[in-house]
Each structure stands twice: as C-alpha cells, then as structure tokens.
Amino acid sequence: SVPRLKPLRHAAQKEIVLYAHFLGLPYASAECHHAPLAFRGHPRALLKDLEASRPWAVAALAHSGRRLAL
C-alpha cells in the first residue's frame, strides 16, 4: 500500500479554489446534484456556522481529531 499525499489537506476549500483561480488552473466548482439530499450537508452546515462565529474553531477541530487514537 502506498501512502496518500495530501499537500492541501489543511487548506479550506475556498482557499484552494482561490489558489487555482489566481494560477489559472482548471477546477470543477459544480456541486453534485445529490448533495442537497446527502446527510453530510448537515454537518457541513454546522461547520460553516461554527466557522462564521469562530474562524479558528474548524482548524482546531481538525487538528484535535488527528491526535485521537483509534
């Protein structure tokens, strides 16, 4: 098994889109037509609300999740 490289894993989606835009890189911005019905929309909305009130909270949550042992 080859480990996956994720160089932009700590970057927010909007930062990645801006990066691609300013470098003139192609990117897909269309949302899947099943997305409104998917459960992951609920946690995503929760994270967006959390980020709006505390911009550092989402990054802190992701950082703390990496320290959890399975």
Automatic annotation (TrEMBL):
* Keywords linked to the UniProt accession: Transferase
Q: Which GO terms describe its molecular function?
A: transferase activity; tRNA binding
Which GO BP terms, alphabetically? tRNA wobble position uridine thiolation
What's the superkingdom here? Answer: Eukaryota
Name one cellular component (GO) term. mitochondrion
Q: Which Gene3D superfamilies match?
A: HUPs (3.40.50.620)
What SUPFAM superfamilies does the record tag this protein with?
A: Adenine nucleotide alpha hydrolases-like
- Check the record and name the PANTHER family matching this protein: ATPASES OF THE PP SUPERFAMILY-RELATED (PTHR11807), CYTOPLASMIC TRNA 2-THIOLATION PROTEIN 1 (PTHR11807:SF12)
What name is this protein filed under? Answer: CTU1 protein
